Amino acid sequence: MRDATLVTTPGQLDAAVFRLQGASRLAVDTEFMRESTYRAQLCLVQIASDTDCYLVDPLAGLDLAPLFATLADRARLKILHAARQDLEVLLQTGGFVPAPVFDTQVAAALLGLPPQAGYAELVARQLGHSIDKGQTRTDWSRRPLSAAQLAYAADDVHHLLQLHTELALALEARGRSTWNAGECAALENPGLYRTEPGDAWRRFKGLGRLRPQEQSIARALAAWREERAIASDKPRGWILTDEAVLALATLAPTTMAELEHVRALPPGVARKRGDELLELIRAARAATDGNAPWQVPQRPTPEQTRLIGQLQQRLRDVAATLGVSPEVLATRRDVEAMVFGRPEESPLLRGWRREVIGERLLEMTGG
């Protein structure tokens, strides 16, 4: 592979796209900033083929449509590590999810490596190379980019192609290529990267400990926050913190004086949005239905707790036999979905997991 070429002009981009269109596989990574916005700001796109490596600067005023078309072309495999954030940024910026995808983190987990192995860790384990991660928290929106930033960015795709080669061979040897294909195909769904305001409440942890009326308020506030964050392109936490949402749901203030005494709520928010928040809370309380289909499941009964424990033990046993982490097969929430009578919500009954473990667990639940 050649040294990385920084692309900042239309002519350079045309030349890069021409070269990349001849490749059958592309290593892809992005650098972005999202500390002060709802949507991530794409700051750099790194793309490597077996012969070339390009660092494309989206902040140079380039028309990236030809590059996005190359990435969207299904004739080329796109290789990424921990792909979800990169795919989300490309969807927000270019309006598409690159496909097909090979996620090296996913592949490594299916082969028994740590499920959340970082890129540098995986390169060290598999290839024996050390990567300098000194630019991890750098400001990618500042220009000009330094030599250290460019070298770091190039390193993020430099080893992906070799990783793909080795991991793909290992998956094939262990009969797990179809597992990986299914996992990566799921990443193509644009819905993974979009949060509808009405579903924003699902991001919260601990809602199961709230009473139905409190859940209703939290759901309304989460939707309101999401809508405002999208409209203003500001982080959710700048609109209303999770702590404030849960405090408002629990305390359910009915007057401005009560609202102002909610410690987690900044005084400025209470002044500017107080009437709006109080109306949201009032309407949510009035509309509460303890049997609402969206209600967060309550804690399991003692009998359900015992069954969950038995299912998780079987899960651990099968994972040990396969040589993978149990969380690669399923999370506790996935297991609970089966126990709570909602198997359609559990990936354990879809794809390769159903054959490997799902059917066995379903029999244990009496399903």
3D architecture notes:
51% of the residues lie in helices and 8% in strands. By secondary structure, it is α/β, with parallel strands linked by helices. It folds into 3 domains: 5-193, 2-Layer Sandwich (Nucleotidyltransferase, domain 5), CATH 3.30.420.10; 197-286, HRDC domain (DNA polymerase, domain 1, Orthogonal Bundle); 302-364, no CATH class. A hairpin with a 4-residue loop joins β3 (41-48) and β4. It is flat, with a radius of gyration of 24 Å. The model has no long low-confidence stretch (mean pLDDT 92).
Quick rundown:
The chain has 367 residues and is α/β, with parallel strands linked by helices. The mean pLDDT is 92. The protein has helices spanning 10-20, 65-72, 84-94, 104-110, 119-127, 147-158, 160-173, 177-186, 212-232, 236-239, 242-251, 256-260, 267-286, 302-322, 326-329, 332-339, 351-364, and strands at residues 5-7, 25-33, 41-48, 53-56, 77-80, 101-103.
